[in-house]
Amino acid sequence: MVPFRALDRTAVISDIHGNVPALEAVLTDIERRGIRTVYCLGDLVGKGPQSALAVDICRGVCEGVVRGNWDDVAARPQTPPSPTLQWHREQLGEARLRYLEALPNSIDLLMSGKRVRLFHASPEGVYTRVYLDVPYERQLEMFTNTPFTGNCLDEPDVVGYGDIHVAGMVSLYRHRKTLFNVGSVGNPLDEPLATYAILEGVVGGTEKAPFSVQLVRLPYEVEDAIAVAVEMNMPELKPYAKELRTAVYRMDQGSR
Ligand SMILES: [Mn+2]
């Protein structure tokens, strides 16, 4: 039998969107499993009521955080100003907005000899959305090096991302690549459960060793999260509450 080094586990969370009850449920679950390294793939803020607290918690807990589209949009003043965005910006305050603006685009790790890349939406930028069930060639483009990801020597073997709020995994076996989406902690649009991923392997290791991706979905107090939004008189409360309860995107509510 080949002796392997002990395996490390890394949690990858994303799309918290100011939902602190969901974030706390996920962080408790991570801690209970004895996992100490957490990365966050962006969209800490917006949509939900507690953006400021979500930023402060993630900043304290996460080894690395990348910028999402909501983080990017919240960081700049709008012309003309959107009242909803303005509400979230006021909760955050100037120092947190500057923190969000300065977040990196992507993070590269080496795990069990595999190059793992983590970003929010796609290698094109935070605003280019790619669903998991796009054609094979489009899935493959998620592995390209671009000015946004930084032009590293090698393309990644594994890509993990957030943005779509739908967790899942695709094997691009013809190219020996794995694409996974970690889902959303605070605004899931697949099942009304807080979702995140766990990577297991030898961190920094170039040797061949086991590598796995696990998707975790866990119940949390959805009604507590809605109650916080009610208490804070958050704008766009109704569609938010319905999304949390049903995990159906507000634009699709009529058709599903
Ligand atoms: Mn998002």
From TrEMBL:
The catalytic activity of this protein is classed by the Enzyme Commission as 3.1.3.16
Q: Which residues span the membrane?
A: none
Name the Gene3D superfamilies on file: 3.60.21.10
Q: Where is the Calcineurin-like phosphoesterase domain?
A: 10-200
Q: Which UniProt keywords apply?
A: Hydrolase
Q: Which family does it belong to?
A: Belongs to the metallophosphoesterase superfamily. YfcE family.
> What's this protein's name?
Serine/threonine protein phosphatase
Species, as recorded: uncultured Truepera sp
Could you read off the lineage of the organism from its UniProt record?
Answer: Bacteria, Thermotogati, Deinococcota, Deinococci, Trueperales
